[in-house]
Amino acid sequence: MLVFLRKERTELIMHMVIKVMRLLMAVVMVVMLQCSKGVFGSQFGAMWVFGDSLVDDGNNNYLNSIAKSNYYPYGCDLSSGPTGRFSNGKTFVDFLGEKLGLASPPPFADRATSGSRILGGVNYASAAAGILDDTGRHYGDRYSLSQQVVNFEMTVSQLRTMMSADNLSQYLSRSLALMVFGSNDYLNNYLMPSIYPSSYNYNPSDFANLLLNRYARQIVALYSIGLRKFVLAGVGPLGCIPNQLATGQAPAGRCVDYVNQMLGSFNEGLRSLVNILNNGTHPGAIFVYGNTYAIFGDILNNPAAYGFNVVDRGCCGIGKNQGQITCLPFAIPCSNRNQYVFWDAFHPTHAANAILAQRAYAGSPNDCYPINVQQMSLLNS
After folding, report:
1. Cα(128)–Cα(131) distance, integer angstroms
2. CA triple 357-360-364, angle to 5 deg
3. Which strand (E) or helix (H) includes residue 32?
4. Which of 19, 184, 275, 294 has a CB 3.0–4.6 Å from the CB of 130, allowing a cystine?
5. How far apart are CA 298 and CA 306, in angstroms?
6. Predicted confidence (pLDDT) at residue 13 exceeds the cutoff of 50
7. pLDDT per position as a tens digit, 150-202
8. Which residues are catalytic?
9. What is the mean pLDDT of residues 232-259?
């Protein structure tokens, strides 16, 4: 009888200990969630980044890809040096995170991105990635849009072990999903007829519809997992980047007009998609279109107003417009980097990224439609 009572008492104590531990874990999660709301309670709890090299912060470092930037002079204006960011300094995500009071999300491919490190969000972006799985394959491995969604599901599986279903639902609904896709589907697919057949199979309008249909499917998948606040960035004026100017298809002082014109179908379609997604069929969600084309176009048309005086070539690169071969290891970049719009053949400088982030955060409806990121963050209040 004594043995039985001792056993019963031990089980009671263990049961009480387990209950106390669960309660403590719940309290910790509530505190962490409250802290993640930002100092003023109006910011996002986490930022989930999906996209390509414009917002990749190191995923391709861990992939078997030739699309890498983990070498000098990339990162030459960062205290940490090269990180895998395709810029001389910070990316659009870094600047936007600073405005939201969030640290830049760690790259998914880094094995250290687990546990408490994922609570502020994760970056899934991958250089050479596109909406289409085939896009960028000549660079080697990359996380396409569909794979990035799968990777996000893996992260959410981890989160389910860290918080209750209700807390997870609230946490995801208060998060920001930033999506930057489309550039590679043109630069590293449609505009490469010697490698990809897409330009033979689709006219520009039909190709844009193909991209938008695939894109919409994955956006809805992310909504079904629990994300509720989305910024969908349009494609910038690719016909003006050093890589395209180096083709010699544009008159002096002009961009490659036919490239810019074909982007209209995609950007206009993405804005229309935002209207469709916001029509009440996705309760609790808000979708925002980031007008990258107009913002970047304004910078290129009025460079002096933003402190730039070089708009037609890269700060680091080789050949015509420093855009025929992109920035190579240990190349010597320009010294006046803050006066350049483009860092290399494809990507903006640190200075240009700062402007893009500011306009996304606090810009007019022409920059961010129907509301900007700052206004979106107030929905969490």
Report:
1. 10
2. 140
3. helix 2-35
4. 184
5. 10
6. no
7. 999 999 999 999 999 999 999 999 999 999 999 999 999 999 999 999 999 99
8. 53, 344, 347
9. 96
In DSSP terms, which residues pair with 324 in a beta bridge?
none
Report the run of H or E that residue 77 belongs to, with start and end: none
Q: Which of 124, 86, 85 is nearest to 105 (CA)?
A: 124
Task: Express each pLDDT in 81-98 by its tens digit.
Answer: 999 999 999 999 999 999
Give me the amino acid identity at 158: Q
Instruction: Please indicate, yes or no, if residue 78 is contained in any of the structural domains.
Output: yes
Has residue 106 been placed in a domain? yes
Domain membership flag for residue 37:
no
367/194 Cα distance (integer angstroms)? 36
Q: 268, exposed or middle or buried, with CB in 10 Å at 0-12, 13-18, 19+?
A: middle
pLDDT at 43: 80
Residue range of the domain that includes 293: 46-378
DSSP 3-state percent helix, strand, coil across the chain (nearest 5): 45, 10, 40
Q: How far apart are CA 167 and CA 373, in angstroms?
A: 23
Supply the CATH number for residue 150's domain: 3.40.50.1110
Q: In the sheet that 176-180 helps form, which strands lie side by side, from edge to edge?
A: 47-51, 176-180, 229-233, 286-290, 368-369
Structure tokens at 377: 């963050």
